What we know:
This protein is an alpha+beta fold.
Amino acid sequence: MILYEYPLQERIRTYLRLEHLFIHLQQLLQRVDAIDHHFALATLFEILEVSTRADLKSDLLKDLDKQKHMLDSYRGNPAIAESVLDEVIHQLEQCFEALNNQSGKSGQSLTENDWLMGIRSRIVIPGGTCGFDLPSYHAWQHKPSQVRQAQLQTWAQTLAPLADTVHLLLKLLRDSGAPQKVIANGGQFQQSLPQGRTFLLLRLALDETMDLVPEISGNRLMVSVRLMRQGEENRLQAINEDVSFELALCA
Length: 251
């Protein structure tokens, strides 16, 4: 199955972008080649770009607090395992404390590193990090891989509270939605969303052997899915057959 996710609110869109970048960063940090470390730095700078949104830290702290209060209300429920509940609440409290204790925006210490910001200003220019443009960066890329890895891990660690918070909030959000089998009649599916409940994320699972691509749109009132098939040169073409897939709405 191929899983597709579609955010129904802007802040969830930001969380998903950050998670996507943190996953890439973690994979690149485990590699040893200089080219991989170059792209690790590029990913680090992308995370900084996304995380500079003024209200991001405030949104994350509010969502952590909201989740904690919601889970606290489950105490005493015989259908809930208290030990599991305590562990999740503890994780929420840890993330809240770590993020709240960071002064300023996430990654602020990185923006105060003149050497890193010099690379950041050049890396967006095609070929802008050539040896003749940034000789100190060229020299850094020739250092032993263990040295580069250690420095990259140190820089990435400054973003750890942000990464942990985003991963935990998205995990809890995904766990809130139960997948259901639905059918796209003639390749199209629409569903009205019930009033009084705010859905934040749509998750769609398609059998990869179908070779289909979903075009998803949605808002607080309705979600819509149109299934497409990739033809020559990967051009998408609408289908007119009935197709079943799994859909989960997470609130």
